Amino acid sequence: MNSNRRAAVARTLDPWPKPPACGVRLAVVWIALTAAPLEAGDDFEQPPISCSESQPANPIAELNDRLARGDARLAFDQSLGYLRSVLELLHVPISSQTLVFSKTSMQQRHITPRNPRAIYFNDEVYVGFVRGGDVLELSVADPQLGTVFYTLDQRVRERPTFMRQTNSCLICHGGTRTRGVPGHIVRSVSVDHSGQPIFSAGSHQVDDTTPLADRWGGWYVSGRHGDTTHLGNITYRHRPGAEGERDTTGLNQIDVASRFDASGYPSPHSDLVALSVLAHQAAAHTILAKASFDARMAIHREAALNRELGQAAGHRWPSTNTILDAAATALVDCFLFSAAPAFQAPIEGSTTFAAEFSKRGPTDGQGRSLRSFDLKDRLFQHPCSFLIYSKSFDSLPDEVRQRFWEKMRAVLQAKDTGGKYPPLSPAERSAIREILVATKPEAGRTWGGQGAQP
After folding, report:
1. C-alpha count within 13 angstroms, C-beta hemisphere, residue 95
2. For a designed S-S bond to 184, which of 118, 158, 282, 325 qualifies (C-beta 3.0 to 4.6 A apart)?
3. What sign results for the dihedral spanned by CA atoms 344, 345, 348, 349?
4. If DSSP states are collapsed to H, E and C, what string results for 176-194?
5. Is the same domain home to 211 and 329?
6. For the residues of 285-327, what is the DSSP string, one character each?
7. Alpha-carbon span 382 to 371, nearest angstrom
8. By the 8 A CB rule, do 414 and 429 touch?
9. 48 in a domain, yes or no?
10. Domain closes at, from 231, 252, 273
11. C-alpha of 434 from chain center
12. 335 and 382 belong to one structural domain
């Protein structure tokens, strides 16, 4: 390759070349070419991800293998189909049940305010059930492939099998709403009495940054939340705001069975704390997948560039560093709830979900856990995501995890409460650090061992 060709390839794949002798900086051109490596919806179908062509390795894929070998069996119930058996085998608690009645999923023809869709979840798996529906809808956080989608036929089968879904789900769950990677969407929309969204009233994508007042349109919500309002439990005849004074009958509901016939559901609840955890982890799983995909694709492109230019295999380009740093920063921001608004009033769930979730640990020597709830001023007592223990986190490229721990060190050693993480006092930063050192071996190794100051 001649020198002009080498220079052209280098400038195309690396957005920050050294400025030319004339002093005109070319960075803007190269940033436009590479700054958003996963914005094209099909990029995750290319190497090194090759999402649809790759073999999943996750709890649903493992259960499928067990079913095929005869090591596990799904029991059919005339009312719930395979739901209870699936929840049991995948270790998904019934107390996690949340109910959504907007027509915003693949089985929308069955979904109405009188027949909501139930969602159950644990740290990795999500199960969707519609009474009278054709299939169970499942998704799982796959460490290498992001969110992987499945369906299970709700008719009696001699050998029931989870069928992987790709294009049919990724049309909605693999675009700009999910950061360009396979992910989840939790939305708050106003709906009419049939469950149809009233899109002219606007909508909100729900995550940790969404105030409670903008959450849960089109969902049932059971629990207490004081004077704080939300958009759940309500349907509209006309566009919201056109009906006069706002309907407040949906607030502070202990259960929601009075709003629809709850027979045929394992629970009459749509627990407010479960909804809050769902909003956090659905968004966090997408950010984990985005970090993984961006980093792996950047390293893949860098290796190709090094081969093309005859560089050493480990040569690191500035553009790769930028992408790796951005991935780690997004994870730190998400895991430390950096943009989460403070609660305006304490919240309380209506089921045993909070107690069951808190018991799952791990805990440090003082009994402290990242799963312990606060529920007065914020969701968790020690605001660092429990997904730091997940396979999706542990499977991130080493270069991302290294930067993550370095950035966490910088945040947790801060002596003041200002800057980007104002909710974290020095004592709270110290508690998070100590819990991580005690319960996450990688934190201890990176920060110098048990009790080490990060």
Report:
1. 13
2. 282
3. negative
4. HHHCCCCCCCCEEECEECC
5. no
6. HHHHHHHHHHHHHHHHHHHHHHHHHT--TT---HHHHHHHHHH
7. 8
8. yes
9. no
10. 273
11. 25
12. yes
Distances (CA, A) of 89 to 83, 165, 278: 10, 21, 20
214 inside domain? yes
The answer on 343 and 244 residing in a single domain is: no
Q: 260, 115 in Cβ contact below 8 A?
A: yes
Cα gap 268→252, rounded to integer Å: 15
Please indicate, yes or no, if residue 39 is contained in any of the structural domains: no
- Domain, as residue range, for 399: 282-447
Q: What Rg value do the Cα atoms of the chain yield, rounded?
A: 24
| Residues 155/136, Cβ–Cβ less than 8 Å | no
Return the SS3 of 379. coil
State the pLDDT at residue 374: 97
Beta bridge partners of 236: 192
**Both structure tokens of 11:** 């400038």
Residues 250 and 336 in one domain: no
Secondary structure E strands in 397-446: none
Regarding whether 376 and 229 lie in a shared domain, the answer is: no
pLDDT score, position 38: 38
Q: At what angle do helices 3-13 and 272-309 cross, to 10 degrees?
A: 180
Structural domain includes residue 371: yes
Of 251, 273, 295, which closes a domain? 273
Q: How many CB atoms lie within 10 A of CB 211?
A: 16
Asked whether residue 95 falls in the same domain as residue 16, the answer is no
Question: How many domains in the chain?
Answer: 3
The tokens describing 69, both together, are 């070998």
Look at the alpha carbons of 367, 371, 372, 374 in this order and tell me if their dihedral is positive or negative.
Answer: positive
Cross-strand partners of 147: 141
| Residues β-bridged to residue 321 | none
Q: Are residues 321 and 384 in the same domain?
A: yes
Q: Which two tokens stand for residue 295?
A: 């980093």
Which of the residues in the chain have pLDDT under 50?
A: 1-41, 173, 244, 450-454
How far CA 261 is from CA of 114, 236, 383, in Å, comes to 7, 19, 37
Q: Which residue has the tokens 């914005």?
A: 39
> Is the same domain home to 260 and 287?
no
Return phi, psi of residue 132, to 5°: 85, 5
Burial class (CB in 10 A: 0-12, 13-18, 19+), 409: middle
Kindly state the DSSP code that residue 214 receives in the 8-state scheme.
G
